[in-house]
Design brief:
Helices cover about 20% and strands about 40% of the residues. The protein is an alpha+beta fold. The strands form five sheets. Strands 15, 16, 17, 18, 19, 20, 21 and 22 form an eight-stranded antiparallel sheet that branches. It has a six-stranded mixed sheet with strand order 6-5-24-23-27-14. The chain has a six-stranded mixed sheet with strand order 8-13-9-10-25-26, with helices on one face.
Length: about 375
Amino acid sequence: MKTQTFSYTAGAWSVAPDGALDSDRTLVVLFGASGLIDHPAPLERVMDAYPRSTIVGCSSSGEIHGTRIYDDSLAVAVAKFERTTLRLATAQIGGTGDSFAAGETLSRQLNAADLRAVLILSDGLQVNGSELVRGFNAVLPPPVTVTGGLAGDGDRFARTWVIADRRPAPGHVSAVGLYGDAVRVGHGSKGGWDVFGVERLVTRSCGNVLYELDGKPALQLYKDYLGERASGLPAAGLLFPLTLRKGRDDEKRLVRTILAVDEAAQSMTFAGDIPEGDYAQLMCANFDRLIQGAGEAAVSARGGAAAGSEPLAIAISCIGRRLVLGERTEEETEASLEVLPPGTRQIGFYSYGEISPYASGHCDLHNQTMTLTTIAEAQA
């Protein structure tokens, strides 16, 4: 396996796309600014350079190249495999109600006896991420590693895009399958947030819309905690996500981030489901623990990168982490790359949701985590 990463920043390429690694066994992964849907020339340059390759990508709330983070740029990774085959599937979604069907349809198109891993990139606003991963889990067996993320648009929450038919388009989900015994894929997903306040019972919700906690309007309770910051919703909610667990003794916690608020209904819409009967609690940032979490994610994921030469790491971190960490954000991309084997090439993006197994088995939707996927080929 041979890999290359490069970026397009401030009108210039760090390395010009030359297509030297273009082949039927080449995977091109790219992440870029949401505005590239209006000005796609850099994307088209990549498409032209890699006509035979499988290309996936999405819009971002910040692009990661190595340990650096950029805005209004394009980060690109090219991986040419020797013995791994690729298959691409894309589905259009008209709204959150299509999410499960999209996941189920894509996974059926990709499923095969030699399928080892799937990388998913989805529209970040028109999808219910929990239902999307549930659709994949309904078809794919747990040994298949499923990771990915939801496209971003900074803190604007206005529009996102995914590469579909080699063009940036809203309202799509794209998934690429990796096949064969040679490919090695590692994964890790960690947070680092601290819980605070009262743990409350979700008493009324519908899918990813939360109406009541402990029988009281959820939005008002949330505003009471946020105080003056409440005027900045929904973006302010990125700084104070919710954590969910099935029971008070359950160690598995999933994190959810606000996408929208409805003043009339006193409800909040999240990136993933908020099931009735779950227990919810607010979270706040601990800077050192967030950075530590990125390193812990890399520890979990590095097994895939250790398999062969020139491994690729795809880092998908939540926009909320970037807003909290501010000038310290690059410390988490440094922490992840420090743990991975020497020679690992890293790109990634800041997202509206991360997809990865919690520890092993089927995948979950996460928010406010650093999720790492490592890809390599075993030596022949």
